[in-house]
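Service request form, structural biology core

Requester: graduate student, group of Dr. S.
Request type: structure prediction, single chain
Budget code: on file
Notes: please return the result as structure tokens.

Sequence provided:
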Amino acid sequence: MGRPRTNDEGVAERLVACATELLATRPRESVTVRVVAADAGTSTAAVYSLFGGKDGLIVAVRDRAVAGLFADLSAVPSTDDPLTDLHALAVAYRRWGHGHRHLYTVLFGGVQSFEPSGEVGSADPVGPLVAAIERALARGVLDGDATAIALSLWVALHGLVTLELAGALDLVAADAAFGAAVGATLRGWATVEAFADPRRTPGS
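Core staff response, request fulfilled:
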């Protein structure tokens, strides 16, 4: 029986996938190089050869999460209505969380302290959300500080998605809460101009 490969892309992919699941479901201190390697069916040497150790593997997991969320939010098209765009971005954020449960849990569960690698640079996973808020400010439909608005919207979204992933909300309750939370947050920052069209309200 030959020695297991330690430096190919398939091994790297298995290690990232296994580390993601373990970090999302266990205390971080229990996720050792030995445990991840065994779960991935390879040797500890593979972790060091491919990632330089546990911290490098965690950075790779964080990069995967950042790149995935950033890509999905960036794929939301911009329109002439920045409030509609913000609602669409909120939908995309929630959808990504549902589709990548473990990556979502890891990304917002304590790996923020790990600096991203050069592959994703300093990309902000919610950068597209901030950009849409800045467009809304420029159009005069929102009023306030872009960072503060983004934080309030993210807090609402993150709280909802986290409760959903934990099984605390059924789909009906989650859908209702999502619409109410996003709409209320945007209305709280909206200007009078945002209500100029009687057929819509901010966040609708």
